[in-house]
Amino acid sequence: MIQQALAMVTGPIETARGLPNEHYTDPRVFEEERKALLFANWAAVGIGNDIPQPGDAMPVDFAGMPLLLIRGHDGDIRVFQNTCRHRGMILIEEKCNLRGTIRCPYHSWCYNIDGSLRATPHVGGPGMNFDQHIDRKKLGLFAVRSHVWRDIIFVNVSDRAPPFEEYASELLHRWKEHCHPVYHGGASSGFTFDVACNWKLAVENFCESYHLPWIHPGLNSYSRLEDHYHIEKPGRFAGQGTRVYRQIEGENGECLPDFENLSEFWNEGAEYIALFPNLLMGAQRDHGFAIILLPQGPGRTIERNEIYYSFDPAAHPEYRDLIERNAVQWRSVLEEDIFVIEGMQRGRHGPLFDGGRFSPKMDGPTHIFHSWAASRIVKQRGNGDA
Amino acid sequence: MVMLDRIEKAILAAHAAGNGQAMAELYAEAAQHMLSNGQIERGCFYLTQGYVFALEEGLASASGIHTRLVELGHEI
Ligand code: FES
Ligand SMILES: [Fe+2]
Q1: Is A130 on the interface with B (CB under 8 A)?
Q2: H/E stretch holding B47
Q3: Core-most of A199, A240, A294, B40, by most CB within 10 Å?
Q4: What CATH number belongs to A2-42+161-382?
């Protein structure tokens, strides 16, 4: 019955249905999707700018899995499970700078910044710090496979996805002109929404341009529906592009500097792509952004919005005003979407809803996302490790 | 003993204030007293406490404490 419903999702768009309600409301299906969609792939969990200095550490709740992001003294970013190897205590509760080792707050086992276990106080009895049965070499923190691209920190929890460069190869190729160093816009260029919806609804809404005239009428004045095109890479990513991107301008027509060496397309082109599972990105000539979706359960998502530039804002105070205005503008556009994604979540508590239908002309990208999700879940169920 | 009393009080105050550097120093100081009085087990306990906080704070003293613990056969 349920398998049949998923077969309806992966079918041709003309007759396909969307994912059934339980994919948005049922904690058991959330669990299943956590494994099949979030852990089995490369998911975004944070940004390098969260931990800019060597020794900086930040805990992240990734769909219930406690993670710890750390920047080492070598400048590299590493990700660990934020759980002590002794009795399973959470190691770090708040963002901090580690001066030395990570000390577990329970019995004070100490871990180096590279995750190795450094000290096991009193483990052999009071004042005796070793025990023949406790092999420190085997008790380092569990490392989680990670990768950084455009300042975004990705993890592959299952450790079975292909290397990131392969996983995202088509996108890396498509946006090869945008593979420059990026600089975070600063405090106001990062803002977070706590939304009452399943994380997938935020992906679905981001992928499509169908809603633009209704939800973002302000954009409609210069960015008409017909100026948009679909971006469709089955099994990998989906989104939309526009041919009439307009840069934000100051009073005297001044603009933010462009990324270097962009081809003509990007003069007025802009693209908005959801890299499955949980990262939404924008590329434009003068700035980019990343939206990281952190699922908090079937009906709640933390949405982190982060805006980036081609230059270091700290070194260019003359652009501060445009950076601030750009943040305000994006914030208001993204806020306009909240009532829809929350409304679709509530709508999915209607037991008569059957997953809905797709407009073959307008909903291609959304269907690609649904089809990807459904086929991953079917595959996992087939493997018997649901 | 009066001396240790003073250190014990200071240690409690440092714990309450979350002052890792002070804890590292005070525990090491207490350990020194005990070890010099021949109280090896008690001394190693305090040395261990001082070691942990020195590690957490990234203090240079950690390596000296480590060496001492190893010499006493209480650390590897
Ligand atoms: S749980 Fe971490 S040291 Fe015991
Ligand atoms: Fe929107």
Answers
A1: yes
A2: helix B40-57
A3: A199
A4: 3.90.380.10
